[in-house]
Each structure stands twice: as C-alpha cells, then as structure tokens.
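Deliverable D2.4 — example input (structure tokens):
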C-alpha cells in the first residue's frame, strides 16, 4: 500500500476493488485458482497479495498457489492448482488426463501432472508429479482450458500403472469412443520410448490382440523399417517408391535401395498366412525379379516388443541378385536376411 493508504480509506478501497477484479478474472478461467506470479504479473504488489491472504480474499492451497473463497472444490480445481504449482510446461497427465478426457475405466487418482525431465519440482502433499524426457507438442492438447496429454499419450502413460483388464478396457473404450484409435496409441508409444517405457510390453500385447496387427499405420511401419535398414548399415533408400517392373504389375513399395536394386517391404498383419495375400506377394516378387530388382524382407527391430502391434511378424522377401562391385553391408543387431 502507498504511504497514508490506510485500511478503510477511499484509496485503499479502490485498490482492493482492483485486486478483487483481477482475482475474479483469474478464478473464472482457472476453476477458482491462481498463482502468486500471475497476481504479480497483473500489477498487484507482493504486500497486497500477502494482505489478501491475511484478510481471507485468497486461500492458500500450495506454496504460491491460491483459490478464491466460495469457489467449488472440485477435481478440476485441484488439478489446476497442481499445474500452477508445477509451473510452465507442465501438463495434466495419467489418471488426471484420463478424467479430463472422460476415458472409460480410468481410476480416480490424486492431481497428477508431468513436467519436462530437465526440471526438478518439489512435490506438494496430495499431488503426483512425473518427469518425462518425451513431452512433445504432438502429445499435448487443451481440455477445460488446461494443458493435458492427449488421449493416446495418456493411455501410454497409464500402461505403466494399470493391470491388463483395466488397461484393456481403457484402450478399447478410447478406440470405440473415438478418443484415440489403436494406431494412434501405437504411434504415441513409439514416440515416447517404445520398449523402454514401463508397461510397454503389456500395451503392445493388447494392441496386437485388438488389431491382429492389421491396422498399424503406414507411418509407424515405415519408422520401424527405416530403423531396421539403418541398423543394417543401409542409410540411403527411398520410401514409397514405384514398384520396379516391366509394366505387368503396378504399385508402390515401402523402401527402394537404388544402388543395390533392392526393394524391402513390411507387412503389418499379425499372421501373414492368408492365401490371397501370399499370392499377391508372389506376383510382386515375380514382377520385381523380371526387372532385375531384388525384393527384401525383414522384421522391424525387436518387433515383438518394441512395435505397437507387439507381434508384427513383418517379413521381407528377398532374392538378392549378383551386383558387380557391391557388397552387402555388415549386418547390425537385426540383420536383413537374404535368400539366394
């Protein structure tokens, strides 16, 4: 307060009325909560913030986080308070995000947020704070004006906390209610560490059971195929290349290695045993061989555990031609097998 600005004076009342306006505006947007920094940024002095707490205009929830008296105490309010305490860059996650997205079978939990891994935040009582090395913009969204992990990333996070039956119910409900498809969940798993994440094996198995591997997005398969080729020492290849043939059969192949005249394809079906599919593959093999092109086939690296559809059993068919002056690269951890 200014010198001479005594409680009860006209200037004091005018100043407090201005504070009340700021508090009301912030509270309306944030489920009745606000942070000390937000009040300071709005032009309210530190002493006036302290006085507002002393006089009951604000109620302290966490250090530097307050709520408006009379505002309904809700789960959303607790989550906003946790987010404001964790600071910029934090997002509601795990069970709290599942609650905001109204995912089926999500268990009630304390307010839960995730912050970037490089930040260290002291966790207040009654709040759960996770740290993540993978918190990309593509995995974030806004819900109830609050930053939150999107449904697919939320399911990936919950995989490390839920047992099989509950996780399966969350996964299936999200797919059929169009919150997140099986493919989107698989893509989120790949982005956030794959097999290194807790619960990834269970989630992979569930995805495989629900899809049979048939609905895995082409972008995911291509990512796995690119990783395999690089591990095998093949750095230069063209994705989605026209099928090399003499014109009898047309189509696109997943990867084409021009200097080796070799094409490689990945099949997302769980069991590649359907007669029509096998006949089509043989026809493509013959067409490629007629043009002097080899057709390679290999499973994505550690496909049974790292791929979203846990048992992709992706395969690559090959009949390597003799290419003068070219030697196959030394195989990496997951070799590309070739048939002569």
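Example output (designed residues):
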């Amino acid at each position: 307060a200014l010198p001479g600005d005594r409680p009860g004076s006209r200037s004091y009342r005018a100043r407090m009325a201005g504070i009340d306006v700021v508090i009301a505006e912030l509270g309306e947007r944030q489920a009745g909560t606000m942070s000390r920094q937000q009040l300071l940024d709005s032009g309210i002095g530190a002493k006036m913030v302290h006085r507002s707490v002393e006089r009951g205009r604000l109620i302290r929830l966490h250090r530097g986080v307050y709520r408006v008296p009379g505002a309904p105490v809700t789960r959303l309010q607790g989550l906003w308070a946790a987010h404001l305490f964790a600071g910029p860059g934090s997002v509601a996650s795990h069970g709290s995000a599942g609650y905001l997205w109204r995912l089926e079978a999500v268990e009630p939990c304390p307010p839960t947020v995730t912050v970037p891994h490089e930040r260290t935040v002291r966790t207040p009582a009654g709040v759960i704070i996770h740290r993540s090395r993978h918190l990309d913009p593509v995995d974030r969204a806004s819900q109830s004006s609050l930053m939150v992990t999107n449904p697919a990333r939320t399911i990936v996070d919950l995989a490390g906390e839920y047992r099989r039956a509950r996780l399966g119910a969350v996964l299936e409900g999200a797919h059929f209610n169009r919150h997140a498809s099986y493919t989107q969940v698989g893509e989120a798993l790949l982005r956030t560490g794959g097999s290194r994440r807790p619960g990834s094996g269970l989630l992979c198995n569930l995805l495989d059971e629900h899809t049979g591997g048939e609905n895995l997005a082409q972008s995911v398969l291509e990512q796995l195929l690119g990783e395999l080729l690089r591990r095998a020492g093949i750095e230069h290849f063209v994705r989605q290349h026209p099928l090399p043939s003499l014109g009898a059969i047309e189509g696109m192949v997943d990867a084409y290695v021009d200097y080796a005249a070799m094409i490689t394809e990945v099949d997302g079906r769980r069991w590649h045993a359907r007669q029509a599919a096998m006949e089509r593959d043989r026809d493509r093999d013959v067409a490629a061989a007629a043009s002097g092109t080899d057709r390679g086939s290999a499973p994505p690296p550690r496909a049974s555990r790292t791929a979203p559809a846990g048992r992709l059993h992706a395969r690559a068919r090959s009949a390597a031609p003799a290419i003068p002056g070219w030697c196959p690269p030394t195989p990496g951890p997951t070799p590309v097998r070739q048939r002569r």
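The chain has twelve helices and twelve strands.
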